[in-house]
């Protein structure tokens, strides 16, 4: 009996949308109603690490997420596995004396183990990092020759936003025109070294699971919100062009204006949906007010806020100095309390806190 195991491991960070994706024109293939633009986080924070193993002794495909077995029967996993298997190549490992022909992959089973480097309970989108990492690791193990752009069209079928995590830096997901989704892919606008003094702070406002999944929410908005139609056709196309320009020229004031406006419009679409969807809570709205006041009191806008399908705030500062001042302000306004987790989960480089004179606040800590 042959007995061997081949493995591959990779890590992928999550991404934060600056121009939001909200609405599918094709639910099965996950084709969006508009382009979106995001920034990929540093893999040290909010990333998924996935190991995929193949062995003739495996009887079925199985997956463990953070150590707990999960079902792979859902359409999204099945689509990703099928599309990768279709593109698998020959693999040879001389040391182990293993030769896998590309047609063998249809018969071989996989074991997949994925870990997030942040608490899954923290209510932070993990599907983007998870599916990007799954597709990338499978492609590595199975010798898939496709470029990251083509792989992004597969990751997209796991979770729409996952396609943007196939690249670092600033990324655009072009909605595409083709019915089969082959041109609905991610493209890198700028690498992670372009504009690398930006600081992104994720403030966990609530660690509860969201009540309305993005799939259910998007379906409701597509079916009932007139604002979604207007946004997708009229607002987003020009906003995307302006955001591309702001990124290219490192124009922070424009990035702030566009990011905040787009987050607010996305949440307005949610309110315009019947029945309405509320992702932000009172703390989220207090953070918006705080940032709006802050930005208006200065000559030019200083920080951006954006909220996805949940109450947690993502704040973007132009540099470490402003990030430190912002953290001081947030901690003053929202002292760590048992029912207010905001200050307990500020992600990022601890040295920013030190520079801001906050190192003695023991309640402020990085997520593990
Ligand atoms: O890819 P999904 O189904 O998790 O949807 C993501 C939707 C938003 O996070 C709200 C916006 C975005 O572009 O990431």
TrEMBL record:
EC number: 4.1.1.33
Protein name according to UniProt: Diphosphomevalonate decarboxylase
GO cellular component entries: cytosol
Organism: Phoenix dactylifera (Date palm)
Role description: Performs the first committed step in the biosynthesis of isoprene-containing compounds such as sterols and terpenoids.
Keyword Glycosyltransferase attributed: no
This protein's record includes keyword NADP: no
Main EC class the enzyme belongs to: lyase
Segments forming domain Diphosphomevalonate decarboxylase-like N-terminal: 12-186
Lineage, uppermost ranks: Eukaryota, Viridiplantae, Streptophyta, Embryophyta, Tracheophyta
Similarity comment text for this entry: Belongs to the diphosphomevalonate decarboxylase family.
Domain Mvd1 C-terminal: 200-368
Swiss-Prot/TrEMBL catalytic activity: (R)-5-diphosphomevalonate + ATP = isopentenyl diphosphate + ADP + phosphate + CO2
GO BP, sorted A to Z: isopentenyl diphosphate biosynthetic process, mevalonate pathway; sterol biosynthetic process
Gene Ontology MF terms: ATP binding; diphosphomevalonate decarboxylase activity
